[in-house]
Structure formats: C-alpha cells, structure tokens
Amino acid sequence: MDYFLGLFLGGLTRGSIYALIALGYTMVYGIIELINFAHGEIYMIGAFTALIVISVLTLMGMNTIAILVIAGVIAVVYSSAYGYTLEKIAYKPLRAAPRLSALISAIGMSLFLQNYVLLAQTSDFLPFPNLVPDFEFMEPYAHIIGSAEIVILITTAIVMILLTILIKFTNIGKAMRAASQDKTMALLVGINVNRVISFTFVVGSATAAIGGVLIASHIGMINFYIGFIAGIKAFVAAVLGGIGSIPGAVLGGFVLGWTESFATGYISSDYEDVFAFLFLVLILIFRPQGILGRSDKHKA
Amino acid sequence: MITFGQIKKAVLVSIWFMFLTFPIMVIRVNPVEHIVEWRWKNMLLVGVGSFILSFVWHYFIRRKELGAQKAELGEWAEAIPLAQRIRSKKTLYKPALVAAGIFALAFPFIFSLYQTNIMASALIYVMLGLGLNIVVGLAGLLDLGYVAFYAVGAYAYALLNYHFGLSFWMVLPIGAALGATFGILLGFPVLRLRGDYLAIVTLGFGEIIRIILENWNEFSFGPSGIANIPRPSLFGIDLSVHNATIYIYYIMIGLCLLTIFVVNRLQDSRIGRAWIALREDETACQAMGIDKTKTKLTAFALGAMWAGMSGVVFAAKTTFVNPASFTIWESIIILCIVVLGGMGSILGVIAGALVLILMPEYLRALSEFRMLAFGILLVVMMVFRPGGLIPNVRRTYKFEGVANDEKS
C-alpha cells in the first residue's frame, strides 16, 4: 500500500510540474492557436537562470531563504522576458502567415535557444542545489512523500488559484478571454490584442519558470536539454486535458503524471517516455478535443 | 535614411538584449568547485551585435511590408529567381543539365576519396529531402518523425544481413517496402489530424521508434548498435574500401536521379495535384471528390519509401548503425533542407541539401554553431522568405493576347 501511495503522490508531484508547464501551452494556444514549441526551452532557461543566481549568491554568503526567494523572482522575470522577446521575434511577424510557417519558426526558436544555452554555458549536467529544507513534521511520512514534493504541490495549487483569479476577475483576464474568442471583435471593442498576446506569453513563461525551478531543485540536475522532453510531455498534458482549457491543463498534467508513475512503477522504467507518446496518440485518435476541451472541428 | 528614431530604437533593443542575455552569456558557474566566471566581453558582443542586427531586421521587415503593399496594388512583379529562369529557357537549361551531369559523374576522379564520401552523404540527404518534400512540401503534412523511416531502412539492412545474410541489392527494395509500410502504419492514426497536432504525433512516433531500438536489446542490440555491415558488392565481387566508396557514390547518384524522376512525375500526376489541393484546402478538396484518406496515406507511404531506401544505403555506407544516428534532430535537419530549399520545389530541395550538409563539412571551425545557425535559419526563412531559396513556381496560364485586345 505504501508503494502504491508513494507512486500516487510521486505521480501527483510529477503531474503538477507538467501542469505548470502545460498552462503556458494552453494559454498561448487559446489565444493565437499556435503551439509554442519553444515553451519547454523557456522553462529550461528559467531553471538555468535560477542556478546561476543561486551560485553567485551562495558565494556571497547569503542565507538560504533569501537566496530561494531572489532566485525564484529573477528566474520568473528572465523567463517572462524571454517569452516576450520570443513572441516579438518569431511569432508576431508571422501572425498572418499559414500556421505551418509559425510552427516551423517555433521549432527554429527551440533549436536556437537550446544551442544558445549549450554554447554559452555547458553541455554537461550541472548539479542543482536542493533549496527545500527537510521539514521536521514530515519525518514520519518521509518514505512516502518528501518535503520538496509537498512544496511543489502547494506552490502549484497557489499558482493555479492566482491564475484563475487573474483570468476570471481582472480586466486583462477579461481581455484575454475576449481575444481568444474573436480577435477582430476584441479589436473593435478597443482591446489592444497585441498587448494581450504579449501578456499571455509573459504569464505562461512565468509559470513555466516556477515549474522549472521547482523540478530542478527536486531532481537536482539540469542541462540544456531538459526543456525539450518536459515541453513535449507538458504538451501531451495540455492536449489530454483539452488544449485551450486551463482546468484541463491541470487535470491533464495529473493524469499524465499518474500514468507515467504507475507505468514505470509496475511495468518497466525503460519505456517511460514511450507511455507519454502512446497516450498522446491514443487521445488524439479517440478524443481529439481532450477531457475537458470544447468540441471544435477546426482544431484537430 | 537612418533617422534619430531608428537609432533610439536600436539602442533600446541593444540594451534589452544585453539585459536578456546577461545571466547566461556573462556568468558561468562551476557548481562543483564553486567558481564564478564573469565574461563581460560577451556582453559587449551582444550589445553591438543586437544594435546592428536591429537595423537589418527592421530594414527587411519594412521591405517585406512594402512588398506586400505593392502586391496588393498589383505593382509588384514577383522577381523570378535565376534558377527558375534557367529552367524555363530551353537553350540554357539543357547545357546546364549536361554540365551538372558530367560534373556529378566525374566527381570521384577529380576530388579525393574524402570529398567523394562527403558528397555521398550529401546525396543521401538529397534523397531524404526529396522524400520529405512529398509529405511536407506537396501534401502540407508537417512530419517531424521522418527519421523513423530512415531508421527502419537502416535497421532492415543491418538485421536482415545479420540474421539471413541478405545482400544490399536484395534489401534495397525490402527497405523501401518496409519504409512505405511504416508510413501507412503511422498514417492511419493521424489521418484526422492536421498542422500542429500532426507534427507532435509524428515527433512522438519518431521518438518511440528510437526508444524501442535503444531498449529492446534482443531485437536491435540496444545502444551499442550493429557493426560490420557489409558494403554493397558489384555483381558478387567484394570491393576495397576505396572502390566501395566510389561505388556507393554512383549508387547514390543513380538513386537520386530515380527519386528526382519519380517525384517530378508524381508532382504533375493526378495524385500530385490532389496533394497540392489537400495542402491548400482540405474541405474544398474533398468537395471536388478527392479521397482524403487515400491521398494522405499515399503521401505518407511514398515519402517514407525514400527514407527507407536511403536508410539502407546509409547502413551500407557507414557499415554501422545505432539508435544515436536517428534522433529527432536528424528529422529537423531534413526539415531544414526542405524549408531552406523551398517547399515543394525539387531543385530547391537539392540545393538546400547540398548547402546544409556540405557547408558544415567545409567550415569545420564553425561546426559547433551549426545547430544554432539552423535554428536561426528556420526562423529567418519563415519570416522573410517562406518560399525558400528556389521557390516552387506554380504553373499558370496567361492570356496576354486577350488583355491587349481589350485595351486597344
């Protein structure tokens, strides 16, 4: 039973990271109907920036909590800045072009960002310090769930709540919903659609950076390639839940996390990545709109 | 010409990029030994570089917008590229073709073995590019798992030879058939998808094949791969390494000619027209009575067939296969070839393959920047020249005489 519970909670942790990254895909897709292929790279850059800031601050001799907060904030700021710039360079000039062009441009950006980090930093795996201290009250449950996992779950929940508030109750959230329904109409009622799109990229990149820092500190290793597989899996999560739907992305992340966790726990760990892809193929065949997605014949 | 506003903008862009690249370009940490390296020189480089690039970028964006405006007014005569002009003129086209043919045939005798070997690799990519061109360029189905079919061909030769001792020439058609079968296998589930969904599913398919090859040790010998694959023999005579390389070069020339011929004929055939129609508008295409299922599946099968064949040649050429040769980046390089050359244009794809594969070979010093450059290339091509180096020119009918009569 403990084994099952461990796998269940492990899947939940894994799933909440997927969900954090999947949110960026889903929000961008909801507004400009483009798969931001380079989204995984934004997450990787977030993790790298955090690592660099942590290393510099540790050498300066700051205390751990301060480092944690500063590194997190800087990672979020930089990821958002990258997301914003990415949209301006690679997607904005192609807004009127066929979708295939925008997709190829996104792949190019992903390739560029990976190699940019590879050349400017290193191709080796870098150790990422564990930022979360071991809580004492967690001691009796340590064999099932670690402190880091608890922090990941709580952070994810907070981000989800904030995001829901942002989209449901603020002006910019209203503008985002309007732009995702009909861009021309949104323009006509005086919404600056370009600004809304930029804002969406910024928010999506910020959640990806939070996910990046959390998972990097949990796994303890990063390199320039982590964004690619994580990005693909988060995309699977977004599609699984119904792309364009925010609760869907969260649900999709959890379902994918559990699938992987149980499949590797009970079947075999060699084929961990295959499960995600097989899952994706199966969903797209049997329920292309996802679990919570609207049925829209033009999408699939 | 350069106004104050533009300079201000460029300075802002430059500052923005210096800020953006600061942690990753300037600071390098070594978490094991706790050393931080500050590389301020890189910051200067980024600042100056982005300042200049900002001008270039905005200049080209303005030019593109101007072009779009003129095209709307009907003033813009699409500049016909040199290659297309040569093609359309019979007196130039034939001698050019003959010269290219003689050059290709004499290549192994003019240049060294090393050059011939590189050229043979480039020709494998020409074939892969032309195959992917059917799927992406003609049918408009973005396939990011193309390398899987290449792997199928390579492993088909390696395994059939290892277990049953089949020769290169026997496996070549088998590889093609296997490639096509896998193409249909992939095609069935993704029939209903288009665009981005299709791209991700095919990408997943490519990765699944690679992961299976890596983990299923009893079948594919895992990550260590299969070595000592025989090179092709000439009517049963085993050739020396030197002669075999030249032989493979000629096999590739032959196969490329076959590919060019077939793809060219396909393009103008009923099925080729159906692919183009499908690419432009799926609904309208079905309304015209084209069977979508059949058309898409033939595109996948015919595209994958060439990948299977070139996989067989690849295995025979390197005499060694392992899963590391068939990563997703290989698919993306092939996609780059098609995009750079011009989607749907045969001449473009050939040029694209030669440029992209030969250039890194001769610019060894810059080879670590290769993938970086490919990334930039994809974005820049899509933004400024979506048609590629040698764009595919549509066949059009002109009724010039009628227009003149009306005027007079």
Describe the structure.
The complex is a heterodimer of chains A (300) and B (408). Chain A is mostly helical and 300 residues long. Chain A has one domain (2-286): ABC transporter involved in vitamin B12 uptake, BtuC (Orthogonal Bundle). Chain A contains 11 helices and 2 strands. A two-stranded antiparallel sheet of chain A has the order 1-2. In chain A, helix 5 (147-169) packs across helix 6 (171-181). The model of chain A has no long low-confidence stretch (mean pLDDT 83). With 408 residues, chain B is mostly helical. Chain B folds into 2 domains: 4-73, no CATH class; 111-384, Orthogonal Bundle (ABC transporter involved in vitamin B12 uptake, BtuC). Helices cover 74% and strands 2% of the residues of chain B. Chain B contains 17 helices and 2 strands. Chain B has a two-stranded antiparallel ribbon. Chain B is globular and about 75 Å long. Chain B starts with a helix and ends with a helix. Chains A and B meet through helix 2, helix 3, helix 4, strand 1 and helix 9 of A and helix 1, strand 1, helix 2, helix 8 and helix 14 of B.
Summarize the topology.
The complex is a heterodimer of chains A (300) and B (408).
Chain A: H1 2-32, H2 39-60, H3 64-91, H4 99-120, E1 126-127, H5 147-169, H6 171-181, H7 183-188, H8 193-219, E2 221-222, H9 226-241, H10 246-266, H11 272-286
Antiparallel strand pairs in A: 1-2
Chain B: H1 4-26, E1 27-30, E2 35-38, H2 40-73, H3 82-88, H4 90-110, H5 113-138, H6 147-164, H7 168-190, H8 195-215, H9 217-220, H10 241-268, H11 270-280, H12 282-287, H13 292-318, H14 328-341, H15 346-362, H16 370-384, H17 400-407
Antiparallel strand pairs in B: 1-2
N-to-C CA distance of chain B: 43 Å
Determine the strand fraction of chain A and express it as a percent band: under 5%
What is the count of helical runs of chain B?
17
Mean pLDDT across every amino acid position of chain B: 82
Shape estimate of chain A:
globular
CATH topology-level name of the largest domain in chain B? ABC transporter involved in vitamin B12 uptake, BtuC
Q: What portion of residues of chain B belong to β-strands? A: under 5%
Helical residues, percent of chain A: over 70%
* CATH arch. level architecture of chain A: Orthogonal Bundle
**Name of the CATH class of the largest domain in chain B:** Mainly Alpha
Side by side, the strands of the main sheet of chain B go 1-2
Helical content of chain B (DSSP H or I, runs of 4+): over 70%
